[in-house]
Specification:
This protein is α/β, with parallel strands linked by helices. The chain has a single domain, classed as NAD(P)-binding Rossmann-like Domain (Rossmann fold, 3-Layer(aba) Sandwich). It is about 45% helix and about 15% strand. It is built from 6 helices and 7 strands, in the order βαβαβαβαβαβαβ. It has a 7-stranded parallel β-sheet, sandwiched between helices. Helix 2 links the parallel strand 2 and strand 3. Helix 1 packs across helix 6. The termini are far apart.
Length: about 240
């Protein structure tokens, strides 16, 4: 997929994986919009990345469909087309089902699963027109369950299956769909602060590189579900 005059929307792009993906897309020549629930965070990220290309930061909450439609309309008003959606925004609440609150459950499902549906639904007409690409960021937690992961596992298992169904729905419309399922990533997820001790983990630029590779893939070939792990995790 040539990047000339093409545009991308990255949800949750103010930090972490979304930030790394946005940087790669800019370096490839895409015009990029990054979103965050915080306008100041989105604009700060866009300012930091502006040396790499044309980028805007927009406020949006993936849990609100009207918010997602507004962002897509803003992007289309500015750039007249949308070629790539990277549905990255996510959250995690962890703990035994005995302790998990109903609010934590709802926020996790609404963000990680329903939010991706809203993002795709808001973008699908524009992406059909451009014969574009949808990439969702799931997790190895979308195929490997663990204690304390009831809400997160449910959201990511759902996202993995949802994305594969969307791939089948849209491939005859010219839209490619893939999901990336990372393991341990050195990121700010859940307010964690990456340190030198996280050097063994997948880095955000690695996920950015993977997104770039998908976009450069010959259009006859579709890697629809990609698991990615640290190559040398610490021995237990």
């Amino acid at each position: 997929m040539s990047s000339e005059n093409k545009t991308a929307l990255v949800t949750g792009g103010s930090k972490g994986i979304g930030y790394g993906v946005a940087k790669t897309l800019l370096q490839m020549g895409y015009k990029v919009a990054v979103t965050s629930r915080s306008l100041s965070a989105a604009e700060k990220a866009a300012d930091k990345l502006s040396d790499y290309g044309e980028i805007i930061g927009l406020e949006a909450d993936v849990r609100n469909f009207e918010s997602q439609k507004k962002v897509v309309n803003e992007l289309l008003d500015k750039w007249k087309r949308l070629d790539v959606l990277v549905a990255n925004a996510g959250i995690g609440h962890f703990g035994s089902v005995e302790d998990l609150t109903t609010d934590q459950w709802k926020e996790t499902i609404d963000t990680n699963l329903t939010g991706v549906f809203y993002s795709i639904k808001a973008c699908v007409d524009a992406l059909k027109e451009s014969e574009g690409y949808i990439i969702t960021i799931s997790s190895l937690a979308g195929t490997n369950f663990f204690a304390g992961g009831a809400a997160y596992n449910a959201s990511k298992f759902g996202l993995t299956g949802f994305t594969q169904a969307v791939m089948l729905d849209l491939r005859d419309k010219g839209v490619k769909v893939s999901t990336i399922m990372p393991g341990s990533v050195a990121t700010y997820f859940n307010d964690n602060e990456p340190t030198e001790e996280d050097a063994w983990k997948i880095q955000i630029e690695d996920i950015g590189e993977l997104v770039g590779d998908l976009l450069k893939m010959n259009p006859r070939t579709l890697p629809s579900k990609i698991e990615v792990r640290p190559s040398q995790p610490p021995k237990k």
